[in-house]
Amino acid sequence: MGQNEYEPRHPKWRRKARRDVTIESRQQIRQSESWYNPQVHQATGVIIAQTHADPDEALRRLVGHAESTGCPVDAVAADVIARRITFT
């Protein structure tokens, strides 16, 4: 089975991040196919740079913000990349 072009290149990190995110967050990501959206991973990196959080915490913050505002994870990721949303 070939690797999806949008799938992160480090599957061990992906499994660990999935394990640490809540069930509701995982469902939201899977429903929107956000997990394979490169913007989600780029936004996670932006959050890491802004907050010095580890990758799991950065992903939790991204998904948590999406859940608290009722926005899709993809839309929040795009706003983080565009610097319309910042985490400090």
Explain how this protein is built:
The chain is mostly helical. The protein has 5 helices and no strands. Helix 4 crosses helix 5. The longest helix has 15 residues, at 55-69. It is globular, with a radius of gyration of 12 Å. 25% of the residues are buried.
Topology:
Elements: H1 11-20, H2 23-32, H3 38-51, H4 55-69, H5 73-81
Short key terms for the protein model shown above:
single chain; 88 residues; mainly alpha; 66% helix
Alpha carbon gap, first and last residue: 40 Å
Total strand segments? 0
Radius of gyration computed on alpha carbons: 12 Å
Count the DSSP helices. Answer: 5
Main beta sheet, described?
none
- Helix content percent band: 55-70%
The ordered string of helix (H) and strand (E) elements is: HHHHH
Provide a concise account of the structure shown.
By secondary structure, the protein is mainly α. The chain has helices at residues 11-20, 23-32, 38-51, 55-69, 73-81.
